[in-house]
Amino acid sequence: MSWSEPMRRALALAERGRYGTSPNPMVGAVVLDASGAVVGEGAHLRCGGPHAEVAALSAAGALAAGGTLVVTLEPCVHHGRTPPCVDLVLASGVARVVIGARDPNPVVDGRGVAILRQAGVEVVEGVEDEACRVLIRRFSHWMRTGLPEVTLKMAMTLDGKLAARGGRSRWITSESSRREGYALREEFDALLVGVGTVLADDPRLLRHLGLAEDPHLRRIVLDSGLRTPETATLFHTMPEDVTVFHLEGATAERRRALGDAGATLVEVGDDGTGRCDLRQVLRWLGSHQVSSLLVEGGGEVHWSFLREGLAQRLHAFVAPLILGGREAVHAVGGVGFASPQEAVRVRFGELRRLEDDLVLVGEIGGV
Ligand code: AOF
Ligand code: ZN
Prior knowledge:
This protein is of the alpha/beta class and 367 residues long.
């Protein structure tokens, strides 16, 4: 029997958790009885909720005995927010467990497989494993590095401009692109911008589409000198979700003003160019349950992430407009790399047309 088909079904079920499981991974599961008929399906829908196997096995009930559990992620062995899945898998009496990817969480990583095998359950691995690993990409990165996986989102003209000189960076791309950009905000744990963007655009940076279960979105501002005005629109709604990173030199008065506006202030070290040390910023976010970070500019912030090699993904919307202008706002600022050999390479995974725009999604630094 090929397990690819039920595994692909499990992968599809896992998608149901896209807007709710973080920082937990998305997981899907299917239970087949001894004859191969589907008797239970389930997905992990939200962090703190039942794991996928639990949902699928409870749906199957007594029909699971002697059957097969097909699950995109290795069953867990630990007490987290919920009890260990392996206990339930063993109690269900399934004869076989088919696993897509091992759990990169160091408290699990292979132990789930070992416990099941010791108990005499047949374990099959490597089924649709590539797709199962892609499904938990952000979670794996966070587990492995302790830092959130970083995606740079850029909406730009064909000549790589975010805005005209001194201009606001709004309305360059089509309505559909803007909607897709907003949809990204619903599936990331946090959104980051530089203070330049706050000063130029005075954005709200909220979740507007209602796709995520949680209306809260952590909003991060990199603001070495605490120039963010306490009257910024950012603070009008859910100010408790705003964290501002700054350097030591910020005055007590500015700290008080932004603290009073509701922001959490975090002091970090200098990166050597007078800006916040991004590694420290990411470490702080990673230790506060942020496993995925969407960076929405501006150009200086994009440059800092690229220069430090701290961005993993690019999601670019390119409008069929040529703005020109030496003084226009470039998608990536900074001093730039000195030669094409040093340039950051992007491996495009997806190239799409959206209304009149192009959407380019890729992996940064991939070869
Ligand atoms: C599974 N099935 O559906 C998921 C798993 O705090 P808890 O109890 O929700 O545990 C979270 C950890 O469990 C998470 O870090 C990851 O290692 C694993 N997630 N495991 O067997 C699931 N979502
Ligand atoms: Zn579990």
